[in-house]
Design a protein that fits this description.
Strand content: under 5%
Helix content: over 70%
Order of helices and strands: HHHHHHHH
Largest sheet: none
Length: about 180
Amino acid sequence: MNKEQSIILLEKIIRGDENALRQLFDIFSHKLFHLAYSFLKSREVAEEAVLDVFIAIWNKRKSLTHIKNIENYLYIAVKNQALHYIRRKPIPDENLLPLYEIELIPEDDTPEHIILDKEYESLIQEAIDTLPPKCKEVFRLCLSDKLKNREIAELLSISEKTVSEHLTLAYKRISAYVKKRYQ
């Protein structure tokens, strides 16, 4: 979604268009869920946090005219909501969901290559799981949510240089992990 489309969508929401809110939810809810989940580690609580943000947007829609970038606004709102939940009550442990869906484009569809691709995907996932928490979060926002360094920095309240350092570290560690396991 480009900036003009998001501005039009936000203007419709401000005017009370429920379908526009639904569109916004459909576009961003999956990414926002992953963000909330990275903080809360609970599927139900993460879903609740995202829904709370969209309910709040609807309830205060007339006062949202100052928003210039709805995507950044949503990410920051979900992050703040997740942090509010953490302060408010303990979060139950659940089976952890994979936050990354690594999918390789197969070069060949022979059974041998399919098996090797699955093993490689699994190995990359293992490597990602070994990253330090903040580094993993930055890597996920970049890889899965396709946010720019500036957007990640704003969302996490860190500098763009720190984002770049986390991404560099992530790629180095993943590469080293894969090389070590393949040797």
